[in-house]
Design goal:
heterodimer; A: 2 strands; B: 317 residues; mainly beta; Jelly Rolls; 7-stranded antiparallel β-sheet; 3 helices; 26 strands
């Protein structure tokens, strides 16, 4: 039993509507901030793709394997999103 | 609709608000971290003002409370930083007070925050699932026991484990100079709050003290790094499996399809049975059927898992 059925009061309904509206604002701000991070992220990704060829990619715990150059993925043309 | 993807969000950037919902006594403030628009389930940072006093009572939703600073008293026992409570829906707890104030994380997992004064449990309460522990003093760190596992230097203390969904709540830490060079996603939703320290993820950058995320399933995160160490509280809504890979640009759909393909190859017989079984409503003999409450996903041969059952009208005799 995760929750017990009950009737919500008007006050609770109003509180929820307000909180949902504020969350939408927070979400939009996060998306904007993450979009602005893109140049840094591109650099971090380039460094990551380099490291996994030299030091390796983690497979399990301390087990790593080196990725071959032909395995390295290329960036697709579609818009790259990190927040969904 | 479930909770949206909130990542990253730092609660230090916003002020506390007074919680004025019916049933809750005066003296509790909150910062909303994430909220489910449908059922009202939410995660909040809360502040119990000095002198806070909450009479014995229960919530209609399962909830979890983790004390970050200060202390609270429940009944005659004082609980300081690191104290954790898992309180099933309808389980009544004794009077809660905080003479000098406290800050905490408060999770209402399946419904909006609710508080009803009561000295006895609700008839549907599952009292045996109640748990209270001081995680700093009474639990020890262990390596993650998932397979495949996170890199060495990430350790956990499991605070609560749901045997039905395999959801769990855990403290985790990253040692100074922790790093993990892969990308991960999970079949479960995951949320975490940084009690102390800053960690880094390739997608989102730094997450400092007071940083929080609520991440729905199948979203890429990692590589990971942490320079000076981090202490955090994490929670999942079901079983956590580390789907590791190294393609930074895969989409949500591609990740989900890969996970489904893995189920198909790891449990071929079960996969086939689930796909072809008529009612598509597998029953766990250890638990209630669940159909009456509409809490178990299923379809009637049409693939519409999100349908809602209308209540049947009873005929009067």
């Amino acid at each position: 039993m995760k929750s017990i059925a009950h009737k919500r009061s008007r006050e609770v309904e109003a509180w929820l509507r307000k909180e949902v509206a504020e969350q939408k604002v927070r979400y939009r701000k996060i998306v904007q901030e993450q979009d602005a991070l893109e140049p840094k992220r591109d650099k971090w990704i380039a460094e990551f793709l380099q490291r996994i060829q030299t030091r390796g990619v983690h497979v399990h715990f301390d087990q790593m394997r080196k990725v071959r150059p032909e395995e390295i993925p290329t960036k697709p043309k579609r818009k790259f999103r990190v927040v969904f | 609709m479930a909770r949206p993807h909130i990542e990253p969000f730092v609660d230090r950037d916003v002020p506390f608000k007074k919680l004025t919902l019916p049933g809750f006594p005066k003296g509790m403030q909150y910062k909303m971290l994430s909220l489910d628009p449908d059922n009202g389930a939410c995660t909040m940072t809360v502040l119990f003002e000095p002198g806070y006093k909450q009479p014995p009572g229960m919530s209609y939703s399962e909830y979890e409370l983790f004390i970050q600073s200060g202390s609270i008293q429940i009944g005659d026992k004082v609980w300081g930083p690191g104290s954790y409570f898992f309180v099933p829906a309808g389980v009544a707890i004794e009077q809660l007070t905080s003479s000098r104030g406290a800050t905490a994380l408060l999770f209402f997992n399946y419904g909006e925050p609710s508080w009803v004064e009561s000295e006895t449990d609700h008839p549907l309460a599952e009292r045996q699932r109640f748990r209270a522990v001081n995680s700093y003093n009474d639990l020890q760190w262990s390596s993650t026991n998932f397979y495949p596992a996170t890199a060495p230097g990430c350790m956990v203390k499991v605070l609560a484990f749901d045997e039905r969904t395999q959801a769990f709540t855990f403290l985790y830490c990253m040692t100074p100079n922790f790093w993990q060079d892969n990308i991960s996603y999970h079949d479960c939703a995951e949320e975490a709050y940084h009690i102390w320290g800053t960690s880094w993820m390739m997608q989102f950058g730094d997450l400092p003290t007071g940083g929080y995320f609520y991440r729905p399933p199948y979203i890429n995160h990692g590589a990971f790094g942490c320079k000076l160490g981090t202490l955090a509280l994490g929670r999942t809504d079901s079983r956590l499996y580390n789907h590791f890979h190294f393609n930074p640009w895969t989409s949500l759909e591609e990740n989900k399809e890969r996970a489904a393909s893995r189920v198909q190859h790891w449990m071929p017989d079960l996969y086939k049975w689930i796909n072809t079984h008529g009612h598509n409503h597998p029953v766990d003999f250890e638990f209630a059927h669940g159909h009456a409450h509409g809490d178990t996903a299923h379809h009637h041969g049409d693939g519409q898992v999100d349908h809602v059952h209308k209540r049947k009208k009873r005929r009067r005799r």
